[in-house]
TrEMBL record:
Protein name in UniProt: Cytidylate kinase
Main location: cytoplasm
EC number(s) given by UniProt: 2.7.4.25
Occurrences of domain Cytidylate kinase (ranges): 6-215
Gene3D superfamilies in alphabetical order: P-loop containing nucleotide triphosphate hydrolases
Residue ranges of the TM segments: none
GO molecular function: ATP binding; CMP kinase activity; dCMP kinase activity
Compartments where located: Cytoplasm
Lineage top rank: taxon: Bacteria
Gene for this chain: cmk
Catalytic activity: CMP + ATP = CDP + ADP; dCMP + ATP = dCDP + ADP
Pfam families given in the database record: Cytidylate_kin
Lineage: Bacteria, Bacillati, Bacillota, Clostridia, Peptostreptococcales
Length: 216
Protein backbone atom coordinates (compact mmCIF):
# COMPACT_ATOMS: atom_id res chain seq x y z
CA UNK A 1 0.00 0.00 0.00
CA UNK A 2 1.24 3.49 -0.83
CA UNK A 3 2.43 5.50 2.13
CA UNK A 4 0.89 8.87 3.00
CA UNK A 5 3.17 11.86 2.55
CA UNK A 6 2.58 15.48 3.51
CA UNK A 7 5.16 18.04 2.41
CA UNK A 8 5.55 21.36 4.20
CA UNK A 9 7.98 23.89 2.79
CA UNK A 10 8.67 27.54 3.44
CA UNK A 11 11.20 30.07 4.65
CA UNK A 12 12.79 30.17 8.12
CA UNK A 13 10.46 30.89 11.02
CA UNK A 14 7.21 30.37 9.12
CA UNK A 15 6.03 27.93 11.81
CA UNK A 16 6.61 24.77 9.76
CA UNK A 17 8.05 22.55 12.49
CA UNK A 18 5.59 23.50 15.27
CA UNK A 19 2.67 22.89 12.94
CA UNK A 20 4.05 19.74 11.33
CA UNK A 21 4.74 18.19 14.76
CA UNK A 22 1.18 18.84 15.90
CA UNK A 23 -0.33 17.42 12.70
CA UNK A 24 1.90 14.38 13.05
CA UNK A 25 0.52 13.78 16.56
CA UNK A 26 -3.09 14.23 15.52
CA UNK A 27 -2.82 12.00 12.45
CA UNK A 28 -0.34 9.46 13.72
CA UNK A 29 2.31 10.33 11.15
CA UNK A 30 6.08 10.30 11.49
CA UNK A 31 7.41 13.86 11.64
CA UNK A 32 10.69 14.43 9.81
CA UNK A 33 12.45 17.76 10.32
CA UNK A 34 14.80 17.83 7.33
CA UNK A 35 16.30 21.14 8.48
CA UNK A 36 17.59 19.26 11.53
CA UNK A 37 19.47 16.90 9.18
CA UNK A 38 21.24 19.81 7.41
CA UNK A 39 21.95 21.32 10.82
CA UNK A 40 23.46 18.03 12.08
CA UNK A 41 25.70 17.81 8.99
CA UNK A 42 26.78 21.42 9.64
CA UNK A 43 27.56 20.64 13.29
CA UNK A 44 29.71 17.72 12.25
CA UNK A 45 31.69 19.86 9.79
CA UNK A 46 32.14 22.72 12.25
CA UNK A 47 33.33 20.29 14.93
CA UNK A 48 35.74 18.73 12.43
CA UNK A 49 37.36 22.15 11.94
CA UNK A 50 37.77 21.92 8.20
CA UNK A 51 37.37 24.56 5.55
CA UNK A 52 34.02 24.62 3.76
CA UNK A 53 36.02 24.84 0.52
CA UNK A 54 37.67 21.47 1.07
CA UNK A 55 35.13 19.42 -0.85
CA UNK A 56 37.15 16.20 -0.76
CA UNK A 57 37.54 16.19 3.02
CA UNK A 58 33.90 17.17 3.52
CA UNK A 59 32.74 14.27 1.37
CA UNK A 60 34.97 11.87 3.25
CA UNK A 61 33.74 13.05 6.64
CA UNK A 62 30.08 12.94 5.66
CA UNK A 63 30.38 9.45 4.21
CA UNK A 64 31.42 8.37 7.70
CA UNK A 65 28.63 10.22 9.47
CA UNK A 66 25.39 8.78 10.82
CA UNK A 67 22.35 11.07 10.89
CA UNK A 68 19.18 9.47 12.25
CA UNK A 69 15.95 10.20 14.06
CA UNK A 70 14.89 8.38 17.19
CA UNK A 71 11.63 9.21 18.98
CA UNK A 72 11.63 12.70 17.50
CA UNK A 73 15.27 13.33 18.44
CA UNK A 74 18.02 14.01 15.94
CA UNK A 75 20.97 11.71 16.48
CA UNK A 76 24.40 12.48 15.05
CA UNK A 77 26.88 9.59 15.30
CA UNK A 78 24.84 8.09 18.18
CA UNK A 79 24.63 11.37 20.13
CA UNK A 80 21.45 13.40 20.66
CA UNK A 81 22.16 16.87 19.22
CA UNK A 82 18.66 18.41 19.49
CA UNK A 83 19.91 21.44 21.40
CA UNK A 84 23.31 21.94 19.79
CA UNK A 85 21.94 22.18 16.25
CA UNK A 86 19.86 25.23 17.22
CA UNK A 87 22.87 27.29 18.30
CA UNK A 88 23.49 30.59 16.46
CA UNK A 89 26.80 29.29 15.02
CA UNK A 90 24.82 26.63 13.16
CA UNK A 91 22.32 29.23 11.86
CA UNK A 92 25.25 31.17 10.43
CA UNK A 93 26.68 28.27 8.43
CA UNK A 94 23.87 25.86 7.64
CA UNK A 95 22.77 27.49 4.38
CA UNK A 96 26.32 27.29 3.01
CA UNK A 97 26.47 23.61 3.84
CA UNK A 98 22.97 22.99 2.45
CA UNK A 99 23.98 24.51 -0.90
CA UNK A 100 26.56 21.76 -1.52
CA UNK A 101 25.10 19.35 -4.09
CA UNK A 102 26.68 16.14 -2.74
CA UNK A 103 25.41 16.87 0.77
CA UNK A 104 21.91 17.31 -0.60
CA UNK A 105 22.24 14.06 -2.51
CA UNK A 106 23.08 12.14 0.67
CA UNK A 107 20.31 13.74 2.73
CA UNK A 108 17.61 13.62 0.05
CA UNK A 109 18.22 9.92 -0.37
CA UNK A 110 17.95 9.37 3.42
CA UNK A 111 14.71 11.38 3.47
CA UNK A 112 13.18 9.42 0.59
CA UNK A 113 14.15 6.17 2.31
CA UNK A 114 12.25 7.20 5.45
CA UNK A 115 9.19 8.24 3.41
CA UNK A 116 9.18 4.92 1.58
CA UNK A 117 8.71 2.96 4.79
CA UNK A 118 6.52 5.33 6.84
CA UNK A 119 3.51 7.63 6.68
CA UNK A 120 5.26 10.97 7.00
CA UNK A 121 4.88 14.67 7.35
CA UNK A 122 8.17 16.23 6.31
CA UNK A 123 9.17 19.87 6.51
CA UNK A 124 11.98 21.72 4.77
CA UNK A 125 12.70 23.79 1.68
CA UNK A 126 12.56 21.29 -1.20
CA UNK A 127 10.18 18.59 0.01
CA UNK A 128 7.37 19.32 -2.45
CA UNK A 129 9.71 20.10 -5.34
CA UNK A 130 12.45 17.51 -4.98
CA UNK A 131 12.29 15.06 -2.08
CA UNK A 132 8.65 13.98 -2.41
CA UNK A 133 7.30 15.48 -5.66
CA UNK A 134 4.44 12.93 -5.56
CA UNK A 135 3.35 13.81 -2.01
CA UNK A 136 -0.42 13.75 -1.74
CA UNK A 137 -0.55 17.04 0.14
CA UNK A 138 1.82 19.96 -0.26
CA UNK A 139 1.79 23.17 1.72
CA UNK A 140 3.95 26.26 1.47
CA UNK A 141 3.95 28.26 4.71
CA UNK A 142 5.02 31.89 4.72
CA UNK A 143 4.73 34.91 7.02
CA UNK A 144 6.09 38.44 7.02
CA UNK A 145 9.81 38.71 7.78
CA UNK A 146 8.95 40.79 10.89
CA UNK A 147 6.69 38.11 12.31
CA UNK A 148 9.08 35.28 11.47
CA UNK A 149 11.97 37.13 13.10
CA UNK A 150 9.84 37.95 16.16
CA UNK A 151 9.00 34.25 16.67
CA UNK A 152 12.63 33.20 16.23
CA UNK A 153 13.89 36.00 18.48
CA UNK A 154 11.52 34.96 21.31
CA UNK A 155 12.67 31.33 20.99
CA UNK A 156 16.36 32.33 21.18
CA UNK A 157 15.84 34.61 24.19
CA UNK A 158 13.83 31.90 25.99
CA UNK A 159 16.76 29.55 25.46
CA UNK A 160 19.12 32.10 27.00
CA UNK A 161 20.96 33.29 23.88
CA UNK A 162 22.07 36.92 23.69
CA UNK A 163 20.85 38.48 20.46
CA UNK A 164 18.81 41.44 19.26
CA UNK A 165 15.62 41.46 17.21
CA UNK A 166 17.49 43.30 14.41
CA UNK A 167 20.21 40.62 14.30
CA UNK A 168 17.50 37.97 14.05
CA UNK A 169 15.87 39.78 11.11
CA UNK A 170 19.25 39.93 9.35
CA UNK A 171 20.04 36.27 10.05
CA UNK A 172 16.69 35.05 8.72
CA UNK A 173 16.76 37.32 5.66
CA UNK A 174 20.31 36.22 4.84
CA UNK A 175 19.44 32.52 5.18
CA UNK A 176 16.29 32.92 3.02
CA UNK A 177 18.34 34.67 0.34
CA UNK A 178 20.96 31.90 0.24
CA UNK A 179 18.28 29.20 0.35
CA UNK A 180 16.23 30.67 -2.48
CA UNK A 181 19.12 31.67 -4.72
CA UNK A 182 21.19 28.49 -4.59
CA UNK A 183 21.44 26.44 -7.77
CA UNK A 184 20.51 23.05 -6.34
CA UNK A 185 16.99 22.53 -4.99
CA UNK A 186 16.32 26.13 -3.98
CA UNK A 187 13.55 27.16 -1.62
CA UNK A 188 10.56 27.39 -3.90
CA UNK A 189 6.84 26.68 -3.79
CA UNK A 190 5.89 23.53 -5.69
CA UNK A 191 3.38 24.35 -8.43
CA UNK A 192 0.75 22.19 -6.79
CA UNK A 193 1.40 23.36 -3.21
CA UNK A 194 -1.18 25.33 -1.25
CA UNK A 195 0.16 28.61 0.14
CA UNK A 196 -0.73 29.50 3.71
CA UNK A 197 0.28 32.93 4.97
CA UNK A 198 0.57 32.49 8.74
CA UNK A 199 1.05 36.22 9.48
CA UNK A 200 -1.32 37.15 12.29
CA UNK A 201 -2.62 33.57 12.59
CA UNK A 202 -2.34 31.42 15.68
CA UNK A 203 -0.79 27.96 15.50
CA UNK A 204 -4.23 26.41 16.01
CA UNK A 205 -5.72 28.43 13.17
CA UNK A 206 -3.07 27.18 10.76
CA UNK A 207 -3.44 23.60 11.99
CA UNK A 208 -7.20 23.81 11.40
CA UNK A 209 -6.69 25.07 7.84
CA UNK A 210 -4.40 22.12 7.07
CA UNK A 211 -6.59 19.54 8.82
CA UNK A 212 -9.65 20.74 6.89
CA UNK A 213 -7.80 20.27 3.62
CA UNK A 214 -6.41 16.82 4.39
CA UNK A 215 -9.69 15.56 5.85
CA UNK A 216 -11.73 16.58 2.83
O1 LIG B 1 14.26 24.31 8.80
P1 LIG B 1 15.51 24.95 9.36
O2 LIG B 1 15.42 26.44 9.48
O3 LIG B 1 15.97 24.31 10.62
O4 LIG B 1 16.61 24.63 8.25
C1 LIG B 1 17.94 25.03 8.40
C2 LIG B 1 18.58 25.20 7.04
O5 LIG B 1 18.71 23.93 6.40
C3 LIG B 1 17.84 26.05 6.02
O6 LIG B 1 18.08 27.44 6.18
C4 LIG B 1 18.36 25.52 4.70
O7 LIG B 1 19.62 26.10 4.39
C5 LIG B 1 18.60 24.05 5.00
N1 LIG B 1 17.53 23.18 4.52
C6 LIG B 1 17.53 22.84 3.18
N2 LIG B 1 16.62 21.94 2.70
C7 LIG B 1 15.71 21.40 3.52
C8 LIG B 1 15.67 21.77 4.88
C9 LIG B 1 16.58 22.68 5.34
O8 LIG B 1 18.34 23.35 2.41
N3 LIG B 1 14.86 20.50 3.03
Amino acid sequence: MNKIAIAIDGPAGAGKSTIAKEIANINNLLYIDTGAMYRAATLKLLNSNISFDDKEKIEKILKNTKIEFSNGNIILDDINVNEEIREPRINESVSKVAAMPFIREILVSLQRGIAKDNNVIMDGRDIGTRVLPDAKYKFFLTASIEERAERRYKELIEKGYQCSYEETVDEIAHRDKLDSERTVDPLRKAEDAIIIDTTGKSINEVIDIILNIIRN
